[in-house]
Amino acid sequence: MKQLIALTFFALSTLAFSVEGSAQLFGESQELSKKNSAPALPGLGADSAQVSVSGISAGAFMATQLQVAYSASLIGVGSIAGGPWNCSEGSMLTAQLDCMYMTSNVDPKALVSGLRKVAARKKVDSLDHLKTARVYLYNSPDDAVVHPPMNDKTKEFYEAFVDSANIKTETSIHSAHGFPTLDYGLACDKMDSPYINNCKFDGAGELLKHIYDQRQLTRGTADKNSLTKFDQTEFGSVGIQLADYGYLYVPEACKTKGARCPVHVALHGCLQALENVKDDFVVHAGYNDWAEGSKIIILYPQAKSGSGNPNACFDWWGFTGDDYATKNGPQMKAIKAMIDRVLSQAS
Predict the structure, then answer these.
(1) DSSP secondary structure letters along 34-50
(2) What mean pLDDT value characterizes the chain?
(3) Which residues pair with 52 in a beta bridge?
(4) Which of 160, 164, 195 is nearest to 177 (CA)?
(5) 233: helix, strand or coil
(6) First-residue to last-residue Cα distance in the chain
(7) What does the pLDDT look like over 9-62, one tens digit per residue?
(8) Mind giving me the DSSP string for 271-288?
(9) How far apart are CA 70 and CA 64, in angstroms?
(10) For residues 182 and 185, what is the distance between their CA atoms, to the nearest angstrom?
(11) What amino acid positions are annotated as catalytic residues?
(12) Could you tell me the pTM of the whole model?
């Protein structure tokens, strides 16, 4: 029964929306777009040597893809209930089954070999950059969606490239499939929308502290006025299942010219996008408190539902094309362009 529930809510599905349901959903999305026009993503002169990424579930698979493909510029990754780069190998069925339930079928050595071939074709950054990457891997022993052995597979994959001392795993928290927080969300063992769980465990803080181990990070109190929307359409969101706008959290200390703050990209999971949970993930996952206390800019790209992707997941199985896991992937290029904009100087 748990697996059936998990498949219903999280697994990738080939089933289309019902006509009525899709019309209602897309109608609401269009209405939101009309009511909430967003400004352009600003250049903030952020620190290009301190950029990292993390995500939950589908967002975690996407985060791993981004960090591997752009390892020259992304210094670390946090994966909450995710898996290794290109786990699906371009197959929705493999993503749905092997990368989530039948994890014994996942072969990290084959994925490593595949990555080396892709790197030889210059479709990802030089793999030498991965050696110093900071990697944080979280998977609950009770996760009914991405089964716990996947964490070991991801660790084995990264160990082919990354110094083992730079990899930290957390598998002791008995949480349902969701984002673990210090004090917000559903009971830790309950899986339901918005897939954020009060586990008395600060998932965002733990992964940020590991990635930015050379900095003294402090948890502060987020300022709601520091969280703003930005227009994603200029980054080619139309046609690649990214929403019309994303979110950006800029701490007060990072609004000053010359502040050169780090940038962290936080990626939601399936059914956690704007159209599903409004701003619950971007407000309550816990990143913003750490951003305010530690002077870190948080970028929240937003996916949307579409053909072959009814749950508004980021693309980690190829619905945007065969190059989804490389620097040529449409969503990959769009998110990298967002990062580059934040790194640029204010006009």
Answers:
(1) HH---PPPPP----TTS
(2) 90
(3) 76, 264
(4) 195
(5) helix
(6) 54
(7) 344 333 323 222 332 332 333 333 344 589 999 999 999 999 999 999 999 999
(8) T-SHHHHTTHHHHHSSHH
(9) 10
(10) 9
(11) 57, 143, 177
(12) 0.90
